[in-house]
């Protein structure tokens, strides 16, 4: 029993761990896609902010003088203060290009110095400098992936002379996502362990209350050739065995009584002559499409039964309140179902009330066409069974 508890606890713990890991993976996949979309939107909006900020703070057109890039009268080449200030506002890396070469940037190379003089990637140059379009998306920036946004810088005559760049490092995004997933995974594992602990205690209590530890001891002792100990489990098994034996004996006795009653009914059942005789007497009373008058009926049909009963009307040889057509219907049903039958079954078969059917059955019993016996019904209620003769 202890092994079963351990197996169930381990299965439950493994299931919870798999569930927690699946949730963390799904969350990480969703957050990665979400961060990509958010970074792209941020880079686009930050690029617009940078352009407007430079235009407001440094009026004038973009121009190249003596191989240096100017905005109005302000020199932009090697002007680290401008790109650092914009980077502090947006939180992005910022670069001003003269042609395809970085002339002012916050990016730093592997040696820690600003990446002045490095070139933009070929796909960016094609899109921005040659086609004059804004570039949005992932780009290789000094050997690292960045979510980038590039815009062309045009001179007063419309010629493209440079580019303005803002970007967000994907490495920093992934690092931030990794920290978030690690934190979430730790919280998930802690909650999983806590849930597993409470579930294990509940399961242990449930198994202990349902299956006592010594319930299998009698079987083990019997297999070892010893006498089962008088433990609570052995006593319960003995009581259950006694109850099953008594139930089997009662079923066997009841089956014998049923077989005996069936044989008695078959032996005492006479031939079909009685109901057949009544059918012969009733066949002239089949209902027709035309309804004859009372005088015609009294002239055509002879009395069926000469009964000296208090209900006898003397006109049609039936007790008062009984109808020939109904009697014919019940007799036909009894002839069709020649077996011991109850009032309820006949009433259901001919679609009449039990009170009406019982009067006709008692009338047929007085005529000698049926005999009745009392049988025990449900919950000990006696049921009157009519047997065709």
TrEMBL record:
Its main location: membrane. SUPFAM superfamilies: Sensory domain-like, Winged helix' DNA-binding domain. Pfam families: HTH_11 (PF08279), sCache_3_3 (PF17202). It is a multi-pass membrane protein. Residues 75-178 form the Single cache domain. Residues 327-374 form the Helix-turn-helix type domain. It is found in: Cell membrane. This is Transcriptional regulatory protein CitT. It comes from Desulfosporosinus acididurans. The lineage of its organism: Bacteria, Bacillati, Bacillota, Clostridia, Eubacteriales.
